[in-house]
Every structure is written in C-alpha cells, then in structure tokens.
Specification:
The structure is a single chain. This protein starts with 13 loop residues before the first helix and ends with a strand. The longest helix has 30 residues. Helices cover about 45% and strands about 20% of the residues. By secondary structure, it is α+β, with helices and mostly antiparallel strands. A 3-stranded antiparallel beta sheet has the order 1-3-2. The chain folds into 2 domains: about 35 residues; about 100 residues, no CATH class.
Length: about 160
C-alpha cells in the first residue's frame, strides 16, 4: 500500500531510469532517420539511377525542329522520290546527317530514317540497348507537297 510522504520505488534506481529514457529517445531518433532515408531513396529512384531520357528526348526534338524549319534541309527531304522510300541512315542526305551528328554530340549514337508519313517507320536493327526515338513531319515547301516523316533513333554510347 502507498503511504503519503514516502516515494514508491519499483526496484530500480532513478539513475537507471534516466539512462533508459535517453536510450529510447536515441533509438527513436535513429529509427526516424532510417525511415526518412529509405523514403528519400524510393522517391528519388529516377534521379539516383541516372535516368536522363527526358534530356535525350529534348535534344532529339530540338534537332528535328531545326531540320524541319531549315529551308535547305527540308527541301532535300521533300525532293526525295516516294518510290525510293524508306531511306535508311546510309542513304540519308549528307546535310541532314551532318546536322544530326554535330547537334547530338559525342555521348549519343544516332541514326535517322525517312519514310512516308502514313507508314510505320521502325529501326531495322534490334539492339539490347535503350533506344530513344522521335519523329517529325516534313510536308511541303512553296512549290511541292510531298509529306514524309523524319525519324531519329538514338542510344547512349558505351
């Protein structure tokens, strides 16, 4: 029974109880840090894995828009006879090849293909690497309407 004026002891000293309290506070703090670390890794999974597909797609679109808006390069594509399509990388006009290779830089290996606008334009060679692909329509100049698509396929150089 409890009596007034006397302290009730459980059998452990106050010193041990204080140490045990600090240990629990430290354990809780470490647990919170571990959980926060795991959450940050899961949330930033794309950034930690080095996923740079968005930058590659932006580069591809910029190069294709540049070709699309350049009168000389656009006329080279429009002047290609429909019977010779699709045109693979080896037969793509040199001005277009040069623009693509200089604009995409040394870190990417890119090839282009010119097809009819209403055809499926795919890369003939299959690779185990990730291939990033974008296409643009090249439809007409002042005198000629000959719709074609220019498709760019890029992969990261190893």
């Amino acid at each position: 029974m409890l009596q007034f004026g006397k302290k009730y002891k459980r059998g452990k000293s106050n010193k041990n109880m204080k140490k045990r309290g600090w240990v629990r506070i430290v354990e809780a703090f470490v647990a919170i840090l571990l959980i926060a670390g795991v959450l940050l890794i899961v949330i930033n999974k794309g950034a930690l894995s080095g996923d740079n597909s968005e930058e590659i797609y932006k580069k591809e679109i910029a190069v294709l828009r540049g070709i699309q808006t350049d009168d000389v390069l656009r006329n080279e594509i429009i002047s290609i006879d429909k019977s010779s399509l699709p045109i693979v990388w080896e037969n793509v006009p040199n001005g277009i090849k040069e623009r693509i290779t200089t604009s995409m830089g040394d870190s990417l290996d890119c090839v282009a293909k010119i097809c009819l606008l209403d055809e499926i334009c795919v890369l003939e060679e299959y690779s185990q690497e990730d291939i990033y692909s974008r296409a643009v329509a090249i439809t007409a100049n002042i005198t000629d309407y000959s719709p074609k698509q220019l498709k760019l396929f890029c992969s990261i150089k190893k």
